[in-house]
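Researcher: Here's the sequence for the chain we discussed earlier.
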Amino acid sequence: MRTSIEAGRSIVTRRTVLGGTLALPALLPARRAAAAGVLNITAYDGFVPPDFRKQFETRSGIEVRIRPTASQAPELTLLVAERNHPITDICTVVGSRLHQFVEAGIIEPLDTSRLKNWDTINPLYGNADWNHVNGAIMGVPLVIGANVLVYDTREVKPAPDSWGSMFDPRYKGRVTYDIEDFLQCTMLYQGADPTFMAYLNNPAEAARAVNAARDLLIHNKSQVVRFFDEGSELQQLLLGGDAVMAQTYASTPGKLILAGQPFHRVVPKEGTLAFVYTFAITKGGPNRDAAYQFLDAMLGTPGMEAALTRSAGYASSFRDAGTGLTDTEQAAYGLPQDALGRVRFSRFEGQALSSSLIDRAVEEVKAG
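Model: Thanks. This is the structure I predict for it:
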C-alpha cells in the first residue's frame, strides 16, 4: 500500500474547513520556564493544525519549526543521514514502518508516563500490536488512512456495501482504482488476509491468495475506465463522470463531499485495510523535553480530534474522533464506529512476503 499523502489539487483547502479555535490547556509556569528553545518536527501536511501551533508557541515560549515531508522513504533517508547529529525532535512514521525506523536507529520507545493525556488515544490504536517494537510503544497515533469504496449517488443504486460492487457489470468501464491497494481489498472480498500475518509460515498459501485476487482483477479488467496513481487523477475521473465507483484511501473523496458533490464513501462489509500515522520521538533529538510537552499538549487540547481531521484530511485516532465534526465532515472523513471492527492494519511482519507477491501481481494485472 502506498503511504504518501495525496498530492492532487484541493477543491476545499484544509485552511477553509478548519473552523474555530482550539482551547490549549494552560502550561505550568515551571514547565514554561524550562521549555525555552526550538522544537523541530518533520511532518506531513496538516498534521500540526495551524491554530494549535500558534497557541502552543504562545503558551510555551517554544518555537515550532515544521519540516514538511510527503512520503516515508525520503523521510527515512533524510533522518538516517542526520542520525549522528539529529535535527528533528518529532518525526512522522506510519505504523507499518515503525520497525524500520527503530532498526535504522531513528526513533526511541515512547515514555507514556510523560504523557498525562495518553488516554485521549483510542486504545485500538495506541495499544495495538503494530504500535509496539520489542515490547515498547513507539508512536502517538494521529490519523487513520483506510481504503474506502466511493460512489456517485446519482449513478450507483442501490448503495453498495461490498467490494464486489466494483465487479458489477452495470458499471462496466466506469470503475477506477489503484491496482496495489485494490488487489488487497479484493483479497478481503475473497476471504483472504491482506496483512499476510496468516501466511507468515505458509508462503504457498499467500501466493494462492494473491494469485486469486490477481486473476479476478484481470478477468474484470473491462470494468476499469483507467487506473489512477494520484488523487488529482481520481478527482478528474469522478468529477468528469468517467468513473462512478472507485476504491481509494486518498482524501480526494472527502474534499468532493465537503464541496457538495454527489459522492459517498463506505467501508464495505468485508472490511478494509488501513494504516495509522504516528508522531514518534527521534532518538537523540536536541529537545526531547519540548517534544513530550508538545505531544501532551496536543493530546490534551479540547477539539483536537476534529482539528486534526480537518487539517490532515483523515479520521482521527482519538477516542472521541467524531466529536466536533458536522454530519458532512463525518461523511467526508470519518470512520463509523460500527466499521472499526472491520478494519485491519498493515503490519511490518507481513511486508516482505506481501511485497514479494503483490509487486509482481500488480504488473501482471497491468499486462493482463
